[in-house]
Every structure is written in structure tokens, then in C-alpha cells.
Fold each of these.
Amino acid sequence: MKRENIKFIQGNEACVEGALYAGLDFFAGYPITPSTEITELLSYRLPRKGGKFIQMEDEIASMSAIIGASLTGSKVMTATSGPGFSLMQEALGYAIMTEIPCVIVNVQRGGPSTGIPTHVSQGDVYQARWGTHGDHAIVTITASNHQDVFETTVDAFNISETYRTPVILLYDEVVGHTRERLIVPEQGELPLVERLRTSVREGVDYHPYLPREDGRLPMSDFGGVHRYNVTGLFHDMWGFPSDNPKIVHDLLRHLVDKIQNNVNQIARFKEYYLEDAECILISYGSSARSANHVVVSRRPRGERLGLLELQTLWPFPYDLVREKCANAKYVVVVEMNMGQILQEVRKAVDRPEKVFLANRIDGVFITPTDIRNILRVIQGKGV
Amino acid sequence: MAKPKLKEHVINREWCKGCGICVHFCPKDVLELDDADKVFAARRSDCICCKMCELRCPDLAIEIEIEEDGQ
Amino acid sequence: MAIKDYLRERFFPHIWCPGCGHGIVLNSLLRTIEKLGMSKNEIVMVSGIGCSSRISGYVDFHTLHTIHGRALAFATGVKMSLPELNVIVPMGDGDALAIGGNHFIHAARRNIDLTAIIMNNRIYGMTGGQYSPLSGYGTMATTAPYTNIDHDFDIAELAMAAGATFVARSTTYHVQQLTKILKQAILHEGFSVVEVLSQCPTYFGRKNQMGSAADMMEYYKNNTTSIGSKAKKENPDLIERGVFVEKEMPEYCSEYDKIIERAMA
């Protein structure tokens, strides 16, 4: 490994490295704590490789601009935090409806509202799933350490291009601002998915929204030989508005099924000591670091703890969770919110009454001690 | 250049919505709306081929076809 | 008509009401594009939401029908990532100046090479006739049943103050001037704003007893004048038509290309 590939940087910068590695062409963003570093770094790094950066007037404009850019064939990304993420919801729904690849980074901070800009929370999990109106599916991925931030960022671009969908990278302030080592792989080490472009020739009818037999939808760049319409209204396979019940039904099913039917392909997770675990901790993002520490430190003392670290939050891998927790006596979800993934885990397992919450919601990073104390209470041992 | 000679008022009755703009602004009062509220050239020979009806039609429903004069 | 080549004819007759000014804007715009001899593949039309914004569905270009008020933001992304494209952005008055006001100001400020066409019919037509920021004091609308107490503002002034380098106004009556102005606007390398005073006979016209579509166009004929004309001096209430500003300033995408050059050096 080359010396210059070893970096000691913030998680936000690891995300930037991942995006550039994946082939980011265009970034539009707006400053907001604790994601601003991503925007600043890209303003510096992108033009150095011929890419384009613009600071827009607000988050709505940022999300809109990247969608426009994606249509011309660019790989695009924006980055924000809670309040900005709220602003982006309408345009995010537009990208879902129009099946335009893009990556949205939300480095979570305390909310709701202005909340606590410089402190951590994981309160936006449900917003990532349901923030935009209407029935829809979304892909949301997170990571707990910088190497994973890098890889999940590359993965986000790949998933985005594969399924023609926006992908949300839901990091958090602790991961974003912590400094640790990152090893940047050589080009070619991690697979990259390029946009699938149509092979339909000029002059031949191109349908932007007609899936191939394998379910994929080839795209055609704006400015190219195929002229078509893109609209947020329900539309036919040519992209023209329609309120025909069959068209509406089929399109909605397609938008949801293309993600939900690929849960297993999209699921990313890490597991530690699950095979014989009596108590399984389920966690994600920076919380998983503390959860991991609890497992790793308690194991030598004979406690049969295990950790399932989720990286893909949406679509939620219910089958995976049920399967991994089948033999556990009880499950403890560790997160810094009032129990969002908790509810999904309860839906997944056979005995939801055996799922507990170890959380922290005061802006302070949840520590192994916090988790251990809550485990003791759950185990009936008091504090 | 010779004065344009009218060949035909090409009217698309499917597109015409009978808004009356062309009728109102025709400088020579050539056009009228029929019983179906579609435009027609009532006084065809008065047409001076100014094309203002064609330029102002919101429905692109009327076109003034000029006689080819070999120029 | 050669301009029919630029249409998606299978969607005609279009959805606009009889006499709607937007059809006249479409008419003029297509003649402009024909005069310019532009290729269909080089044009991207980005619109927002509303009757005006439906125009993009009717033209055979790369068309992007976006969300209410955000057309200029989408267009900025399109243009910046592929500056060779000719990006035209037709929007309604509410779409561009109410919900979209902020994006309008900043697109102008950046002087990015887009052509914004404000189809100003002073109303929210598609949703049934609510007042817009351009309706004006004393007018009637479904959400101003006791008359409107909102004052309107001068779009051209706003555009100029924000930094637009081509600002012009015409009306659906003055179609020949409109076509000329649209040509200048599209050719201009920088942010161009063309305000077109248009008519909504169905809502604004009826609610404010302005007669038929033709009557509303007569109103524009009689109540507008050329910029700086004698008539304007005598009657300051007349609305000025023409080109207010046309100046050469560094265009945003070319400025950014210079940044890339510097960054890569």
C-alpha cells in the first residue's frame, strides 16, 4: 500500500474520498453543520479532476441542481444535515419518481428543528424512509468507521446507478467529525458500476421508463440523440403524464418493487459473534462502535454477546435480522434516538417482546458504559 | 419583392378552440367563427397575407399558405 | 408550418383554455427557434409547475418538467454539467417569482447562461385562479374575494437588480417584438429574462371583468409602450416594452471552466 494512500482524516473527508473514487462529476451543496466539510473539501477537490462544484442558494436548489446534472450523464452528490435534509424531501421524491441516480449525504445532528448542530443523534432514520410524501421505497446506508464510510460511499453510487434511484448516506456527527485512519484503495480494487445507457439507435423510439427483461432501465443523456420527457407526474413509458389507473398502479409498484424485491442484494451488514450469542446487540453508525466495544470487552468474561451492525437501514433487511436473531434470548437495539430501528427489529423477530432499547438522546455520544448499564437493567441486575 | 399572393387559409378545426383572437385582430376582417365556433375565411379575397392570425393563434390552428411565386 | 416540426403533435390540441396566452408564447418561441436554426438535440427545456410549465410537454426537445418553483435550480445543474446545451426555462409568474423567487434571484446573480421566460398571466391558473405576486392591488381572485391587498412588483427591475444581463418585456399581442426579443435572449450569453405579459381569460379575465382573450390583448396593446417613449413620459402608468438591459458580463459556466483550469494546473 502506498504511503500517500494512508490518510488520517475526518469521516466527512473519507466520504469525499469515496465519492471521488466512485467517479463523482458534479456536486451542489449548501453549508450546514456537521456536513460542511464535505462541501468545502469538494469545492477544492472536484475541479482538480475536472469535476464541477457549486454552492447553491439553499438545500432545495442543491438537490434540484444535482438531479438536473445527473440527467446530462454526471455522477452527482449533495451533502447536508437534518434541517437541510428536511428541505430536500420534495426534490428527493422527484428523483425517486423520475428514477434519476444521485447520492444524498445526511450527517445527522440533534433534532428536531435547529436542534443541536454540533452534537450527534441518529434521529433521521425514519425521515430517510418516509420524509418525502407518497408511497415509495428508498435506499439508505450508514457506516460506523472511516473505511466503511469510504466503501459505503462507493457502494451508494453503484446502487444508485444500478437501480436508478437516489441513495441516502445516513452518517452522523461523530463519524463525520472523528479523525481516524483511512486507506484509500487503488483504482480498480473496488468495483464501480457505470450508468447503463441505452443501445437504442438514433431515430428509433427510445422509452426512458420501459424496463428491460432484467428489470433495469437504460438511460439516455440529455443532449444526446434521444429526446424524451421527464416529469414528477405519474407517467407512461415515454415519460409523458398519465392518470390512467393501470399506468399509475404499475409505475408505483415498479418504483417500490425494484428496491423492495432486491433487499438481499442491497443489504450490507457486519456481524460479530452471532453464532452462539444469547444477547444480540443491533446497532449502526457511530453507536455501533460503542456496541462493538461492549461485545468485544465482555466476551472474554464469558458473556455471550454478539453484534449485528447494520449498514443498510432501508430497505430494512427483516429476513436477515430474524434469521440472525433466531437463537438469541433477547435483542438490544443500540441507537441515539428514541427507538427507530428498534421498531423495525421488533417487526422482524419472532418474539418482539424480547427486543429492548439502549439509547441516548441528549446529544452526548452513547458510550460502552451507557450500554453496559442499560444491559444490566435489562438483565435484572440493576445499576 | 412581389406582394404575397394567398393560396389558402389552412385551418385545423381539431386544434381551433374558437377563441376569436384571429377574428378580432384581422386588419381586413377576413375571418369569422362558424356555428361550431371554428374559424373560417369569410372574406377570403380581402386577405393581405399579413399572417397576424397565424402568429397570434394560441393553438397553431391557422396557417396562411402563400402561392409560390418562383422567387 | 415548419414550426410544427418542433411539436409533439400527438398531444394536440393542447390543454390550454381557448384564448390562453401561453399558446401564443409557444407559437412565438417556436418561430424564434426556427429562425435560429437550432437543432432539437441541443435544446433542453426545463419548466416548473402550472399551466405555463406544461409548455415543455408539447415541444420535441429534451424536456424536464420539474417541481413548483425550482426549474431554475434544475436548469443550473443541467447547464453547468453540460454547458454546450441551450437551456430554456419557461415558467409562470407564481412559479418563478413566488415559490421560485429565491432561485430566480440567484440564477440572475450568477449570470448563468439560461433563458428564463416568465409567462406572466398574473394568476395561479391551474389550481383555479388564486392571486399571484403579480396580480396587483385591488384585483379579484379566488383567494382575494374582497380584493387583493398585495401589491405586485416589477419583474424587470428585480431581474436587473439581481444581476441579469439581458432583461426584456413584451406581450402576447406584440408577437413580432416577442419573437425578436426571444431570439436576442436565447443568443445572449448570460442570464436572460423575458417577461411576457400574457392572459388568463378563464380566471384572471373573468374575475376582473376584462372581457375575452382578444380584449385582454387589446388591454396590453393600449396600456404598454416602448421603453422611454414620449407616451411613457406623458403617462407614467403605461408599462414599458422592449429590452431594458443587454450587457456582456462573464458567464458563470465559463468562469467555472477557468476555475477548473487553475485547479488542475
Amino acid sequence: MSKVNTIAGQELRDMFSAATTWLEKCSADIDALNVFPVPDGDTGTNMMLTMRSTMEEAYRAPDHSASGVAHAMAKGALMGARGNSGVILSQIWRGMAQGLDGKETFSAAEMADALRESAEVAYKGVSNPVEGTMLTVMKDAAKEAKIQVDNGEKDVISMLEAVVSAAADSVARTPRLLKVLKDAGVVDAGGQGIYIILEGALRYLKGETELMRLRKPQMIMSDMPLTVPLPQAIGVDEIPFGYCTEFMIKGEKMDPEILKKKLEKKGESLIVVGDESAVRIHIHTLDPGMIVQFATKLGTLHQVSIRNMDEQHQDFLEMQKERMPTTDTAVIAVASGQGLVEVFSSLGAVAVVPGGQTMNPSTKDILQAVQAAPSDNVIILPNNKNIVATANQVQSLTEKKIKVVPTKTIPQGVVALLAFDYEADFKANAEIMEKALTSVKTIEVTRAIRATNINGLTIRKRQPIGLLDDELITAGDTDLDVIKTILAELGMKEAEVVTIYYGEGIEAAEAEKISASIMAQYPKLQVELIKGGQPHYSYIISIE
Amino acid sequence: MTVKIVTDTLSDITGDLAAKLGITEVPLYVRFGEEVYRDRVDITSEDFYRRLINEPKLPSTTQPTPNDFAEVYKKLAKETDEILVITVSSKLSGTFQSATQAKDYVQGKCRIEIVDSTTVALAEGLIVIAAVNAVKAGANLDKALDFARKAASRSHLIAYFDTLKYLAKGGRIGKAKEFLGAMLSVKQILTVKDGEMAPLTRVHSLRSGFEFLMSVPSRYPNIEGLAVEHTTNPQDGNTLAESLAKIYPNVPIYRSIISPVIGTYSGPGALALSVLEAEKK
């Protein structure tokens, strides 16, 4: 592969010009991702327009050194910055220009320094830096560049390959850092944009211009499950978004730091960047008039833009419709315990109503979840025999169509949800799910609450007891005893998959012993251990 | 002169069958780092899957260039003046685009029509086979084109994925992303809907996956053709094909290996079942 040890101004310009075209190809895809800070759905377009202005200035620059080009890019970016993401992007170029200041050409090590400076300046430009955004992606990219250089990497292409890959990982991680992204099941749009710019520059350096002409950038996917697939849940708060207010002040002897302090309390997502003679301001405020009035005292205003974000939010919701789940049926489950709730939501339940043995939810609790569900067709999985009747009452209280699949245990609920068919309609799905119930056996292990004689068993108080499909069939000295007795009773010839959900108060090590013991006895089984966290039952075991 | 049919290697019509049908296949590319291979020209499926499992870095894939198609068009134009091209879904690959752009490079009076199969693997292949049969029965280009387009809407692909890891990394997951992140070690059944990957259902084991695949053909009243494919698990594929043959003794069942290009996204242990519904009379 060709190696590149230094980059001159001309190449710097061409690589980011190619990156701009690359970004342009997917700016609409990036728009569709936008949820942060408010869902206005134009991050991709804003970044693309900012990059265009950046590159136009770069080509106008009389100075063809790396330093000259980088300074021109920074100027172009500041002049043309649009939106929150554009302003941050302009700071990235400003940092780059500082890093490359006075350099005719630059090496991998010098580029790593400039990237670090970019990340630093970008963080400074934002009054409340939030992790899980393009800032994080830029920081992670810069960090990787330093690692490469510290390891002796001299080839700019190899270094950038590692940087681009680190940026991709960083983008995929953004939902872990930022809840609003996790809820929406998307990665950060600005971060995505940064990744694509870096990737485009890399592809150019690798000589893939023909390929870039024919293809489109690949978007990075979230590595998190989409647990709340409802667009209504994005930015749920009823707080009005106000006006996205942006402009540039041209004046004299201005101090961005002082301006930032003065505006801090006037709105959200404040960004103030620039120098003595030109300052760009971006703020989300309920009173744009006041902001503009304040600014006119400082100098002349340029590129003033005031947009109603509530309207933008509506447009965004429209755009989100495309991202709606592929089916018109919503499933609601009843369960308790963090782990069980996650199991159900990770398998696509739109809501999990808290409840279970000895804590039956009210009809109203279930009704609320039904009303909030993003569909008029709702399937309810009660997951307990005492909750089936409650669930059945919901139909009389709502206009929505309800089907109750009478799951009496958690494992029944899980197999029912697994069997959900994305192509089948509401009625067919209820049937498919109910049919699946026969494919699973449930063991529940708990403690006797009092001494008793039942089903021919003499049971002491607090003794471990075991139920098979809701029927008490054994008591033993330990949980493992109880489980083994029931497994022996079942024969296990037909069984393939055993899933063990261990409850609240059970140590992981203890549960692992039980899982290992079952695996040793039944080596052909696929055994899975999950921290269910359910109260009341020390173990719930599913046998399929 | 009869219509010549061209497809891409994602249709999984390989070797003898391709020769017997008299079609031309344009290969896509798979790349491990700097090494570029033409799909099943420079690398066998077996070699590819061995490397897919053993190498830490995932391969990448590329559509054929317009020039690849243009070369084929030029060659065929010496024998015929009507070419029908059937490609993989344009939402899964840029192959359709390359095939279309290539038309501009061919001079002369040869007519070239391109059909987006809106699917992939032998679900695409079954459309190609149906089109070949139509041409053999005397269809000209217009008729064959119309026939292939209609067949595209009758061809269904249902796939069993042991893991979604590869699909998610390759960025072609489409609507099937709803299946990501399940807390349990479930297996996914996916389909191709409106040209892109879409979720169908989930199962907890290979056996239940098998049972589901076995039940799929009964969704369609009349079946013209079936096809079974695997990635790293020929035995599973054979068992599925044999079991289906018992239920559908009069339906042709084609057997192939999922293209390395698709295998890049399906990963090891995958199975694909394609169903071509018969035309409604």
C-alpha cells in the first residue's frame, strides 16, 4: 500500500473537499438521526453546508501552505457555520488551524497534535459539553491518533485508518453515554457526521475517488437495542422547545468569554465562538428578541436565523414515521425485576408493567400502558395466573383492540414474545403466541411461607419448594435439590434450551453453580443464565 | 435471436447450473484488507467461510464496476441484440446501479433492460431461472422483462441467522435492527421486504428455526420452486432440503451455498430458504 509521510496544503484541501462531497451523500440519513439537543432533524444538512463554506474559503486562500489552508478553512467554517453541529465543527477547524499554524506541510505526529487541539477547542466552545455527542467522537479520534503516533506510526494513512475506526466505535457507543439517544435507538447525528468526514478524507488519501463517486457512506449503527421504539417517546417532556436563534456579530474588541457568561442564563444549548472582530452565537431561547437586541449593541448582525423549534419538532416526528416499527401490533408484558424487565424490552415489548406473584398490578396500571402504547392493537402478556383476569378486564375500558395471551409464567411470556411474527396481523399473532406456550415448561423455586401438608408433601416453614407449571410438586433442603428433582421428573429428553433467571438476593456465584450442575448432568442442553432480579422466586427456569 | 440473460453472483446460481441455463454471471467483490477477490471466481465459498470465521478483521464487499457489466454486454452484443439483466435488490447493493450505468458504454443496436429483483440469494436466482424458462418458451425481451418483474413479487426469501453480529457491523441491517440487542441468545429469522432486510420472528434454537423454515412454504398456496442454501453448515442445509422434498415431491428444490458476499453479513451457521410462488391463474 502507498504510504504518505507528509501532507501539504493542497492535499489538505483536496482530502476535506472529497470528505465534504462524501458527507453530502448521506446528509439526509444523518438528518433522520437527529434527537439531540432537540429533535430538529437537520444536523446532516447543517454540517454539510458548514463544510461547503469551509472548503469554499479554503480554495480562495492565497496561501497554499498547510497552515494557510487550515486558517482559511477555519475562517470559512466560522462564516458559514449552521446549527449547533456546524458551530462545533467550526471550532474543530479552528483547533486544527491552531495546531498547524506556521507549517508548510505536516506529518502524522503533527496531525495527531492538531486533532488533539481540535477536540480541545471544540469542548471549550460549548458552555455545557455533553458526552455521547460529536465532541466525544472527536476526542476519541484524537486520542487514537496520539496512540498511533506514540507507537511510532509515521504513515498518515495508517494512522487515519486507526482514527477512523476509533471514531466508528465511538459513534456506536454514543447511545451508552446519552440516554436520549438510547431511547430513540439511534447514534449521535453530529458524531456520525464527524466519522464520515474523517472517513471521506481517508478514502481520498487512499485513492478511492472512483469508489467514492459510485458509493455512499455507510452509517454507523447503535450497538444498543432499540428498547423504546416509539417516536413519541423522543423528547417526551412537554417543555416547548422555543426558538433556535443563530447569528454572527461583527464588531470590535468583543470577548466571546464575557458574551458567553452574559447569555448563559438566557437559554439552552448556548454556543459562543469567535474572536474580537467576529463572534458567532447559537442559542435555544424562548425570547429571541431579547438576545438580538442585546447583540445589536455590540456590532452589526449577520446571517440572522430564528427558527421555531416546535415546528421543527413536528417535521422531525413526520420524518420519524419512516423509522416506525414494521408492525402495527404492540406487546405489553407484566414482570418485576430489572433483569426480567430488560429481557422483555430487549425482545420488543413496548412497555413492561411492574407486577408478578403477590404484587398484582391493577387493571388501571395495565390500562395506562395500553393507552400509551404506540398502536391501536395491543397484546398483553400477564405472565402470572392471578393477573390474567385483570388483563382481560382492560378491553372493556379502552377503544383499542386488546388480546390477552394467557401466559401464566415468565418463561411462557418469553416464548410467546419470541414467537411474535412481524409479518402476521394482530389476530394471527395472538394465535401464534398462544400456540407457542405449549413449547415451554416452567420451574419456579421459592420458600415455603409456613409449615404445611400439601399434595402429599410435608413442608417446613422457609423450606425451598419447587413448582412445575404452577403446581407445587416438591420440597427439598436446597434450591439445587428442588431443581434437580423436578428436572429428573421431566425426563428432559425433548429439551433443548434451559434458561435460568436468578432472583433478587441470589449471588451470581451461587447461580453459576446451579447452572454448571445442570450442564454437567445434561451435557447436550444449551443452558443460559440470566440475572432476572425478580422478587419472591429465587429461580425461575424455562425449559424449551 | 434469443434474449441473453445476465445476473450477478448474489443470485447463487453457480457452476453447472449457470452453464446449463446459458446465463452470464457478473461477480461482486469481497475484500480481506488489501486482497480483493471476485466472488467465487478467485475464492471458493469454502475458503471464504474458513477465513470469515478465523480472521479477526471482517471482510468488506463491493459491487461490480460499470465496466464489469459493460464488458459482458459488449461480448453478448456480438451474439444477440436483446439482453435482460436481473440484479440483487438495489437497496442491498449498488449492483443495479452499475448494471444501469454500464448501458451507456455499449454502442450499437443491442437493447439492454435491467430488473431490480428486490431480493437476493436464490430468491433472486429463482427469478432468473423463471426468466430463462420464459425465454426458452419463446418470450422476446419485452415479455421476458415483464415476466421477470412479476416473478420478483412472487419470490420470497426467509433466512435463519445464527447471529446478527455480521449484519449489524456491515451496516446493511435495515429494519431488522429491531432484533438487535436481545438479552437472550436467540436466533433470528429474517426476510427481505421492500428490497431490504426485515425482521420476521425469533427462535431459541436451531431446531425451532428448522421447524419454522419447514412451515414457511405452507404460507403459499401454489409453489413453483424452492431453494435451500447454507453458509458453513452444509449438513443442516441438506437435512432441510431433504425434509422439504418429502413434503413437496413435485416441486423442484434447488440447492446452493450462500454467496461469500452475503455470507459477510449473514455470518456462519446461516440457512436461507427461497420460495417462488406459482403465477396466479
